[in-house]
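Notebook B, p. 112. Complex prediction, attempt 2.
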Amino acid sequence: MSSSRKKIALSIGKEVPPTENYMSEPGTEIFGSLVFTDAVQKQYLSKDVYKKLRATTIKGEPLDPSIADQVAQGMKEWALSHGASHYTHWFIPLTGLGAEKHDSFLEYTPDGGAIAEFSGKTLVKGEPDASSFPSGGTRSTFEARGYTAWDPTSSAFIQKEVNGATLTIPTAFVSYTEEALDFKTPLLRSVESLSTQALRLLRLFGNKTAKHVFTNMGPEQEYFLIDRKYYELRPDLIAGGRTLFGAPPYRGQELEDHYFGSIRERILAYMMDLDRELWRLGILSKTRHNEVAPAQFEMAPLYEKSSIAADHNMIVMELMRKVALRHGLVCLLHEKPFAGINGNGKHNNWSMGTDEGENLLEPGNTPHANAQFLAFLVAIISAVDKYAELLRIAISGAGNDHRLGANEAPPAIISIFLGEQLQDIINQLEKGPASSSKSGGTMQLGVSTLPPLPKDATDRNRTSPFAFTGNKFEFRAVGSSAAIYWPNAVLNTIVAESIDRIATKLEKGGGDINKTLATVLQEEIKEHKRVLFNGNGYAADWHAEAQKRGLPNLKTTVDALKAMPKKEYKEVFAKYKVLNEKEYDAREEIMWERYVKVTNIEAGATVDIARNQILPAVLAYQSKLAQTIVATQAVSKTGQKGQITLLDEVAKGASELYEAAEALDGLIESANGGSSLHQIAASFKDSVIPAMLKVREIADWLETVVDDELWPLPKYREMLFQY
Ligand code: ADP
Ligand code: MG
């Protein structure tokens, strides 16, 4: 072990640092304590203003602009009571990361003093300079004006820092020309469109009272934690969040002992702190456990309305990183931080529900007789089939490319798992009305003292990218670091289109809705059933079968983005007013750009680490071997066949490593010389990435032979097990 690595290994403190006293303040007491909650609003706003604000936040009605001043006043008083000195409009530009600019509340008083002010105008609208955020060509640098617009549906909250606090107001970010420059605006628009269409369908089934349909979302967040001291010695993790080098450890995840294993004290202390930070911000962190890979974990919150869940997930990711540092750990949210073991996903649990609390994806005990449920179900099936490419696009990115299809995450082929019960009903519906539902019954465990268990009507399938799980769909292919506004906006939009079509057919059909429905569902199922697949998504024959069925298999981001300009895709976004053509094209442009930039950074880091860290270590070992052999020859008659072979191999490896790094360097340069973004991206995928892998292959082999003392980079076995 190199001296710096050894020092780290010996200094890792496994004892748990003292943190706050969990017992004295239970979760129920701290929950939402840093949020401008309903109860706080009641306290700080007049009855009238409170009621008007609530009509928007709870019922989704348009905001009455006349209340802004009073809401701002109330928010300020409340924030000051928490010691806040600043406020910020918080938004999600197309970088996919939270953005914030802090302003203090202070204004001059006539006598030269200062007073804390916060007006309705400042609450409602901010004006950050938009020119330095990616805009995908919708903005030039000279057209800098951008606006942040208060999103009253997502509660303001206090960010507590070590030495202060900031009132944080969730906002949407738009340009002077009214184009969305963020990820949230399209999601909010998509929910409205979906609501309009879903209400039409609900009315046809006799629901006269629901006023809004919302989408609900519960994102399960996977992550790694490693000791910060190792992280600091890994320039690849620092630059891009994933290891570009590292021989497979002799122990990985093959013992299957990490998943749900007992949680180390140091990690549990982190999780407890994280939970409490989240609870204070009104984020109901519910589940915590060890994940499949060593040093990998998961947190799942309780589901809530999509746009709020998406905001909350941004905060979750940020706090995961922040709290980790306090514990001497680093949280890795990249989709594939370590080769050879599982990567990180974000299971996006999604459903639709009414403002009256009805879950539209609740099948009940006899789904075959639940016409309304079947109509919504079939609408989703059709949407996922028709727009599979869009869903694939929505989850694309350089990071997720390493994960999709790697037998740990669903394949890049988008298909739906329904399970036995619903598949059976769909099969019936294809022929005509459905007449029965298979039921789960109870399980007898063969031990008289154990209670009989009610059995689900359906088993689970973890290889499916889009699985029905009881009363929701789980979109599993989403990347762990993704800002989930975008995949959900896509999902809502395509489902809105499907529901629209089905509702139109039913309205046109007239007469007995159940009769018309049978015909409509039959048509839809015939056309789209190819997307249904209940088998093993990892199996090679599924890929062949999917191809036969004509399902797209867009393996990489480059393949996915190539499909993006299709006319019908732009049209569906335009028709449901989620993104106009310009906004859509901008997102395409940004996704290409991002792919190229990320890959460029990683390729550059590969060259640098190979040349400046690994090669010198290998040469030092080579020299040590050569000197040893010569010195030994001088005094010993023993043959040194083994040592000489080793020297030869090491020298050969060093030479190959040098050449592979040179070749990679050349390829990066020529890729960047490409004439268009698309061409540059394609060169990165087809020539640069394979060349990076070549460098890695040689370096990883060298890691297994070079003196451990000399190896500069913390090894997998250290990062993944010593924490
Ligand atoms: P699993 O996927 O393992 O069955 P859970 O039932 O705990 O796990 O759900 C995982 C996530 O799905 C949680 O965030 C949960 O709140 C969320 N979820 C549960 N029901 C719904 C629903 N109807 N709509 C959206 N998300 C939901
Ligand atoms: Mg799940």
